[in-house]
């Protein structure tokens, strides 16, 4: 592998200075160019899981990127993390999904778990020994998470869980998930009856089916089935029932910053490919970049990239300062994901017929980018979150 793992080994366990961060980002750049970009097109088209990248991600420490150093993580700020995600997404967005929802699971345990849970689980998550993600969505409930039907019933020192989850990233290759259930299906308001468990695969916890997708290929999205799955009571995050909805939603701020960073990466990739192609492709005796109609597209695309990057930086900086940032993370996620969709479509137009060809990457950007508008709360919901916060911050 081309990345210098030594760089990362020497850096982990330190407080991150600007130089340390720059060295880490250099390592990521070398890894992306040496290992990720060269396989992206082939693996995406074959919908093949990038096993080798997972091992390299472990060496790079990515499975503990945002987890505290006391628990074996790199302890990176959200802003440094966002820059890592953007760099990978510029080459291939899908592999960022291998560690993103995994890190949100870890963040839930770190922020809301008991000290015993932090000590037990976080080092195993950070090393990549246990990998997984978030199991929230069900066939009947995605946006309306409080409508889930998976139920956990207490039985002595255990809970017995029954239900089905769907669209779960890392569902096949992962082994441990932050699992949202109802512990009191009759509770009103509904969120008071919800709890989050750290659920390892075992008897009663099986993978239903792998889901086929428009884009975001190579990464497993699967149905998870729970049939009389018994889980020790000490796996209940925080140790008390009824807080699961807050725990799950609390972890989504980091998730939204990650989606925003993925959007910036995709939008920038579409721009840079277009800038290059527009100078190579000639029509009517000159490069298409000399035609004003193409310049207008490039101008808009570049402006979107920079605006999306600035919003992402603003959200990450607030998150790092420990400030409330649901509005800022929502704005960054909303704008950057729409920028990725718009830029990838514009790139497709700039490439003309070749944009439609699988021999160029723009068709992949075009298939991958809409997911950014759906994941971690749809963009319709982001607009509502932004508006609510706005009204709360500016009461009459
Ligand atoms: C590739 C992929 C990976 C995923 N990975 C995961 C994962 O790892 N873990 C996980 O738990 N989930 C995952 N999901 C699920 C994802 O989070 C949900 O698809 C998403 O939350 C939307 O839920 P839904 O699909 O049920 O849509 P619905 O909730 O049915 O929404 C349908 C439409 O109605 C709109 N809508 C809904 N309610 C309102 C409202 N009140 N006001 C206005 N508009 C509204 C929505 O914005 C959307 O446009 C993944 C999905 C995909 C496609």
Can you describe what's shown?
It is a single chain. This protein is of the alpha+beta class. The chain has three domains: 5-127, Butyryl-Coa Dehydrogenase, subunit A, domain 1, CATH 1.10.540; 132-242, Butyryl-CoA Dehydrogenase, subunit A, domain 2 (Beta Barrel), CATH 2.40.110.10; 246-393, Butyryl-CoA Dehydrogenase, subunit A, domain 3, CATH 1.20.140. The protein contains twelve helices and nine strands. The protein has helices at residues 5-11, 18-46, 51-60, 78-91, 96-112, 115-127, 244-280, 292-320, 326-350, 362-368, 370-374, 379-393, and strands spanning 132-135, 151-155, 158-169, 176-182, 194-200, 205-210, 221-232, 282-283, 286-287. Strands 2-3-7-6 form a four-stranded antiparallel beta sheet, with helices on one face. Strands 1-4-5 form a three-stranded mixed beta sheet. A hairpin with a 2-residue loop joins strand 8 and strand 9 (286-287). Helix 7 runs antiparallel to helix 8 (292-320) and helix 8 packs antiparallel against helix 9 (326-350). The chain is globular, with a radius of gyration of 21 Å. Bound molecules: flavin-adenine dinucleotide. Residues 101, 133-137, 142-144, 167-169, 213, 216, 221, 371, 374-375, 378, 380-381 line the site of flavin-adenine dinucleotide.
